[in-house]
Amino acid sequence: MDSFVELYRASNALEAHALKGALEQQGVMVRLLGEALAGGTGELPMDSQEVGLLVQRRHLEQANKVLKEYHQSKAPWQCPSCGEQNDGHFETCWRCGCVPEH
Ligand SMILES: [Zn+2]
User: Fold this and answer.
1) pLDDT tens, N- to C-terminus, the chain (102 residues)
2) Burial readout 45-61 (b: 16 or more C-beta within 10 A, e: otherwise)
3) What is the CA(80)–ligand 1 centre distance, in A?
4) Is residue 92 assigned to a domain?
5) How many domains does the chain have?
C-alpha cells in the first residue's frame, strides 16, 4: 500500500470536495483529512474549516497538475486591458469584453 501524503489544504469542505471530484476524474484516489471532525450530522460544514487532501505518493505529481489546472481555471484574474478583477468562471472581462491570454 502506497503511503498518503498531503497534497493541499482546502479552505473549506466545498472546495475540498470539488477538488476531490476533479482528481478522481483523473484516476487519483483522494482522502480527506479533517472533515471527520465535523461529521456525524450529515451536513457539510459551511464555515471556513480547513480540509486537507491526501493523495498516494505515486500520484503526487499528477495530482499537482490537476490542482494547478483547477486553480488556473477557477482563480480570479485581472483584465490586462482595463485592470478589472474577474471571477475565474468568466472567460472574457465583464467590463470591457477583453479576452485574456492564458
Ligand atoms: Zn477589461
Assistant:
1) 679 999 999 988 888 999 999 999 999 999 998 865 554 455 555 555 789 999 999 999 999 999 988 887 777 889 999 999 988 778 899 999 998 765
2) beeebebbbbbbeebbe
3) 7
4) no
5) 1
CATH number of the domain residue 68 falls in: 3.30.70.1530
Q: How far is the CA of 92 from the centre of ligand 1 (A)?
A: 8
The CA 66 to ligand 1 mean position distance, Å, reads 28
Spatial separation of the C-alpha atoms in residues 37 and 31, rounded to whole Å: 14
Q: How far is the centre of ligand 1, averaged over its atoms, from the C-alpha of 84 (Å)?
A: 5
Q: Which residues are found with C-beta within 5 Å of the ion, ligand 1?
A: 79, 81-82, 84, 93, 95-96, 98
User: What angle, rounded to 10 degrees, do the helices at 60-74 and 13-25 form?
Assistant: 120
Alpha carbon of residue 57 to chain centroid = 19
CA neighbours closer than 13 Å in the CB half-sphere of residue 61 = 1
Whether residue 94 lies inside any domain: the answer is: no
